[in-house]
Specification:
about 290 residues; Dihydrodipicolinate Reductase, domain 2; 2 domains; six-stranded mixed β-sheet; 12 strands
C-alpha cells in the first residue's frame, strides 16, 4: 500500500504517519522545509515530492490532506480529480467562504474529515436514547498556549483557521453530532481571552446548540488547561452520565488517532467513509456560524 501525506500544516499528520507507516509506504509533500525536515527525520524512507501534483502522481492508495484551511478547497479539488480516498485533517473549513468553496466540489463517498475523538475507544460504543434525553454537554480541555507565541498564526486567526472556537470546538461539536445526528443549529456563541492575552482569537469559548427534536446542547472550550481531556455528559430525568476521553498510556489509541487511520485504510481498501459528508458539512456549518456569532 502507498499513501501520500499532502501537507504537514498541523501536528496531526505526524501522528497519523506513525500508524500509517506500519501499513504503507509513505509519500510526503510539505511547503515548509522545517516541517518537512522534522518529518523525514522520523520517517527517512518516505519519498519526498516537490509539489502536490507530484505527490498525487504515480500509484497511490489514498491521501491524507493537511494544509492551512484557506488552501483546503483548491488542494482537495486536485485530490478529488484522482478519485482516491482522502482523509482531510480537521477542520475542513473554518470560515464561510471556505465552506462555500467546498460546496462547489464533487465530494464523493470516500472523503472523510472529522475529529479523531469520534474513534476514541472510550466513545466509540456510546449511544444516546433520544426518548429519555433532555440535554447534552461536551467539554473540550486542550491548551492553546503555543499559539500565543505566534506559532501557526493562521490557526489562531478567525478568518483563516477559525481560532480556538473552531479548531478546538470541532471536537465537542463532532462528539455531539456523532451521538445525536446532523439536524442541529447553533443558537448562540461567546468567547474571551482569559489568560493568553496575545492570542488573535480566544482561549475560552461556549456554544449553545439545538437539535430539531428539541434536545439542547452546550459545547465548552477550555483552551487554558494543563491536562488534555474531553467529556460528554448526557442529561436525563433520572440523572446524568458522563463519558471521559483521555490520552492514557497510549494517546494515539486513546484519543482516536489510530481508529481514524484504521477507518481511512478501510476506505483505501474500497469502503465508503464511515462519516457521511452531509454530517461533516453540518458540523462545519455549526462551527462557521458560531464563529460568525461573536
Amino acid at each position: 500500500m502507498r499513501i501520500a501525506l499532502a501537507g504537514l500544516a498541523t501536528s496531526h499528520p505526524y501522528t497519523d504517519a506513525r500508524t500509517l507507516s506500519r501499513h504503507a509506504e509513505l509519500v510526503v509533500w510539505e511547503q515548509d522545509q522545517e516541517r518537512l525536515a522534522r518529518f523525514t527525520a522520523e520517517h527517512p524512507r518516505a519519498k519526498v515530492a516537490g509539489s502536490l501534483e507530484e505527490a498525487l502522481s504515480g500509484r497511490l492508495d489514498g491521501v491524507v490532506l493537511t494544509v492551512p484551511n484557506p488552501q483546503v478547497p483548491e488542494a482537495l479539488g486536485k485530490v478529488l480529480e484522482t478519485g482516491l480516498p482522502c482523509f482531510v485533517n480537521k477542520p475542513a473549513a473554518a470560515a464561510r467562504a471556505q465552506l462555500e468553496q467546498l460546496d462547489r466540489l464533487p465530494i464523493h463517498d470516500r472523503v472523510l474529515s472529522c475529529s479523531v475523538l469520534r474513534f476514541a475507544p472510550a466513545f466509540a460504543d456510546v449511544r444516546a436514547d433520544r426518548g429519555e434525553l433532555l440535554a447534552v454537554r461536551a467539554t473540550v480541555r486542550h491548551d492553546v498556549g503555543l499559539w500565543a507565541t505566534g506559532y501557526n498564526a493562521w490557526q489562531d486567526t478567525p478568518g483563516e483557521g477559525g481560532g480556538t472556537m473552531v479548531t478546538m470546538g470541532v471536537h465537542g461539536v463532532e462528539l455531539l453530532v456523532a451521538l445525536l445526528g446532523p439536524d442541529v443549529r447553533p443558537v448562540g456563541a461567546a468567547g474571551a481571552r482569559r489568560h493568553y492575552t496575545t492570542l488573535r482569537s480566544e482561549d475560552t469559548g461556549v456554544m449553545a446548540l439545538r437539535w430539531d427534536d428539541g434536545v439542547t446542547g452546550v459545547v465548552e472550550i477550555l483552551g487554558v488547561s494543563e491536562p488534555e481531556s474531553y467529556s460528554v455528559t448526557l442529561h436525563r430525568r433520572d440523572g446524568s452520565e458522563t463519558i471521559v476521553i483521555e490520552p492514557g498510556d497510549d494517546p494515539v489509541r486513546g484519543l482516536g488517532y489510530e481508529g481514524t487511520i484504521e477507518a481511512f485504510l478501510a476506505m483505501a481498501g474500497g469502503a465508503p467513509s464511515p462519516v457521511p459528508w452531509a454530517e461533516t458539512r453540518a458540523i462545519l456549518d455549526v462551527l462557521v456560524r458560531a464563529r460568525e456569532d461573536f
